[in-house]
Amino acid sequence: MFVKNNNSNIKGFEESLLDNFAKIPFLSKYIHTRGWPYILAWWHRLSGIGLVVFLLVHIYTLNELFTPGIYEAKMKLLTLPFFLFLGWLLAAPVIFHALNGGRLILFENFGIRNDTFLIRCIIFLSIFYMSVMGLLMIMGNQSVSAVFFWLIVLAAGGVFASFLSSILRSRKHMIFWKMQRITAVMLIIMVPAHLLFTHLNLSMAHDSHVVTLRMHNWFIKIVDLILVLTILYHSGYGIFSITGDYLKAEISRTIVAGLIGLVMLFAAFFAVKLIILI
Predict the structure, then answer these.
(1) DSSP-assigned beta bridge partners for residue 201
(2) How many CB atoms neighbour CB 186 within 10 A?
């Protein structure tokens, strides 16, 4: 009886949350005419673009580890309550993009299209993730072995990616398309894990000595290289896919693809340089 009532309460909360979103003037028109999958598709794209911008800023900021004084001065500003709150909010588009990406993969590769159930799962898991991360940020005194943590995360991401790769092997799609899906499965695991890890306590990401010491480990260097290169490929191909919906001329698509490739290569150069030399 308790489980049944608890499930009813969760379901009622999710339905109430969806109803409240449906009352927002700008969204209500599209929710009632196009449905939630249309809204989620646009949120997925916008959150993805936002995360690309954040990634480029993040790479630029981490390059200041070569001058610890400047890095810690900026990180000290980010420890203020307002910026900590913004850091917590930043996890919302991350976890949404990851979970909604999982929903798309389930439909695209396994034919699962129970949108009502999956959207509820996205809402519930997003709230759970945000709550856990908020609790960790409030406590601010947790720690875990970086090697142990990332060994488990990398193994989990590799297993899921290998499983999807075996399914896609027989599909008649371009290798770039397949890599986009495979990297997505890895990032569903690795990116939310990265955010949780860096918010276990303030020193994990704000103390230049702690960050540098962790990055000196060869295994962590490998993890960081896999993570950043996977993100850059996934985000670059994702942006190219979005532009492809609006650019019909082949020459325009080629030029845009070249520009996107240059930006991602430029970011990859600085990221790899940081990881190897730090």
Answers:
(1) 141
(2) 24
- List the structure tokens of 98: 């990851």
3-state secondary structure of 51: helix
The model's pLDDT over 137-174, given as tens digits with 9 standing for 90+, comes to 998 888 889 999 999 999 999 999 999 998 888 878 78
Given the structure tokens 């492809």, which residue do they identify? 244
- Residue 30 burial by CB count (10 A; 0-12/13-18/19+): exposed, middle or buried? middle
Q: Model pTM?
A: 0.84
Fold of 34-277: 3 helical TM bundles of succinate and fumarate reductases (1.20.1300)
Nearest-angstrom CA–CA distance, 117 and 10: 12
Query: How would residue 1 be classed by pLDDT, with cut points 50, 70 and 90?
Result: very low
Residue indicated by tokens 């371009």: 174
Domain boundaries, the chain: 34-277
C-alpha distances in Å from residue 200, one per residue of 9, 134, 145: 30, 10, 11
